[in-house]
Specification:
This protein is α/β, with parallel strands linked by helices and about 240 residues long. The chain has a single domain, classed as P-loop containing nucleotide triphosphate hydrolases (Rossmann fold, 3-Layer(aba) Sandwich). The chain has 9 helices and 10 strands. It has helices spanning about 40-45, 70-75, 95-100, 110-120, 140-150, 170-185, 195-200, 220-225, 225-230; strands at about 1-10, 15-25, 30-35, 60, 65, 80, 155-160, 185-190, 205-210, 210-220. The chain has a 6-stranded mixed β-sheet, with helices on both faces. The protein has a 4-stranded antiparallel β-sheet with strand order 2-1-4-5, covered by helices on one side. Helix 3 (about 95-100) runs parallel beside helix 5 (about 140-150). Adenosine-5'-triphosphate binds near residues 11, 14, 38, 39 and 40.
Length: about 240
């Protein structure tokens, strides 16, 4: 289980995330909803050890306190982060970008097995393995980015706005793959602005506003919540 308690993250004197507590339980797909600047990326980066949390924050994962671990040790503990904005190497091939996600694995057969699983989840990538990642469509690049995070064979996958700026049909494809990943037992923490599509696949959700959590509950309940409907669904 991932258990975040009283997480506060500051950039200088500005508190971007304030006293945020949430958890992802075994088997769960949890969505973090929030508008631009709400603090989603800051939370993901703090959990992955890329941005330091303020004193008093606790990030517990599988019985360990993560704030004392290096980003590499955090990956080794089974947590994999698919960052906002894909962060691919556009000149390198799709296959190389994917293999980079398995950099801690030295077993060639195992790497092939993981690659095959990624291609099963994202059929549009098969036949593109030797193409430069930068030559792919936005949706396919997002698939490579999620695939690369999966190549670490994580126990929990952190996905920071995987559907941003994709066409609706591609959003559905990417989120369906995320649901499929979760069905195999991988825990998922997903951040999204696309509330409806995300709540459709999530078990539970949390709503962030201005760095604070304002609402949480089962996905089906949040979907009906007036505030969520007004803010995210144009109701
Ligand atoms: N490196 C930084 N230095 C200073 N302020 C930052 C930095 N990164 C983010 N912020 C500020 O922290 C707040 C939260 O930003 P964050 O990127 O976490 O939000 P977000 O929910 O991921 O937004 P988006 O949906 O646009 O990705 C914003 O006010 C942002 O301007
Ligand atoms: Mg962000």
């Amino acid at each position: 289980m991932l258990k975040v308690s009283a997480l506060t993250v500051s950039y200088g004197s500005f508190q971007a995330v304030r006293e945020v507590s949430f958890e992802v339980r075994p088997g769960e797909l949890v969505v973090l909803l929030g508008a631009n600047g709400a603090g989603k990326t800051t939370i993901f980066r703090a959990v992955s050890g890329l941005t330091p949390a303020d004193r008093g924050s606790r990030i517990e994962w599988a019985g360990q306190e993560l704030s004392s671990l290096s980003p590499r040790a955090i990956v080794d503990s089974g947590l994999s982060h698919c960052p906002e904005g894909r962060k691919l190497f556009p000149e390198l091939s799709v296959g190389t970008n994917l293999r980079l996600g398995a950099y801690r694995c030295h077993d060639k057969a195992e790497i092939q097995r993981r690659l095959a699983r990624v291609l099963e989840l994202f059929p549009p990538l098969s036949g593109r393995m030797n193409d430069p990642a930068g030559a792919l469509s936005g949706g396919q690049q997002q698939m490579v980015s999620v695939g690369r995070a999966l190549m670490a064979e994580p126990k929990i996958l952190l996905l920071d706005e995987p559907s941003v700026s994709l066409a609706p049909k591609v959003v559905a494809q990417v989120l369906e793959a995320v649901a499929a990943i979760n069905r195999t037992g991988t825990m998922v923490l997903l951040s999204e602005q696309n509330a409806y599509a995300a709540l459709e696949i999530a078990h539970r959700g949390y709503v962030l506003e201005g760095g604070r959590l304002v609402l949480h509950g089962p996905a089906a309940e949040l979907m009906q919540h007036d505030e969520v409907r007004r803010a995210y669904m144009g109701a």
